[in-house]
Design brief:
With about 140 residues, the protein is α+β, with helices and mostly antiparallel strands. It has 2 domains: about 5-35; about 45-130. It has 4 helices and 6 strands, in the order ααααββββββ. Strands 1, 2, 3, 4, 5 and 6 form a 6-stranded antiparallel beta sheet that branches. The chain is elongated, with a radius of gyration of 23 Å.
C-alpha cells in the first residue's frame, strides 16, 4: 500500500496547516470587508450624497465628469428601521482630479444631512453641497 505525500513528508503538516489557516482568515476578512462596503454602496444616504455631488456644477468643474465613487468608504452607518445615523467619507474621482465627499446625516423617517461637503485633493477650500438647497429641505 502506497503512503500519501503528506504521510511521507510529515514535517510539512504544520506549515501547510498554518498557510491554510492564514488563507481562511484572509478570505473571511475579505468577505467582511466586501459585505460592509456593499452595505454602504446600497444605502439611501450614500446614493443621495453621490447624486448631490454629481449634480453640482462646481464639483463637476473641479473633479471632472463623470464622477466615479471609490470602493474604500471610511466611517460608520447605523440604520434601525426608520431611524439612523451616518458619518462617513466617500472617495471620488473624475477626469480632472480626485477628492472625497464627507457625509454626516441622521434619519428619522427621512435622511437629513447636517454636513455634506466635497474636498478636492490639492484645493484649500471645500465645496458645501448643502448651501445649494435651503437648509430646512430634507431628502428621503
Amino acid at each position: 500500500m502506497r503512503r500519501s505525500w503528506i504521510e511521507r513528508n510529515a514535517l510539512w503538516k504544520i506549515p501547510l496547516g498554518c498557510l491554510t489557516l492564514l488563507f481562511l482568515m484572509a478570505l473571511f476578512g475579505l468577505g467582511v470587508f466586501t459585505l460592509v462596503n456593499t452595505t454602504f454602496h446600497h444605502s439611501d444616504v450614500y446614493k443621495q450624497a453621490m447624486a448631490r455631488a454629481q449634480e453640482n456644477a462646481q464639483v463637476r468643474a473641479q473633479i471632472g465628469d463623470p464622477i466615479a465613487p471609490g470602493w474604500m468608504i471610511v466611517g460608520e452607518l447605523k440604520i434601525n428601521g426608520s431611524t439612523g445615523y451616518a458619518n462617513f467619507s466617500i472617495p471620488i474621482s473624475g477626469t480632472r482630479g480626485k477628492g472625497h465627499i464627507r457625509v454626516v446625516a441622521t434619519k428619522n423617517g427621512v435622511w437629513r444631512f447636517s454636513f455634506l461637503q466635497v474636498y478636492v485633493d490639492g484645493q484649500q477650500q471645500c465645496i458645501d453641497l448643502l448651501s445649494t438647497q435651503p437648509p430646512d429641505q430634507s431628502v428621503e
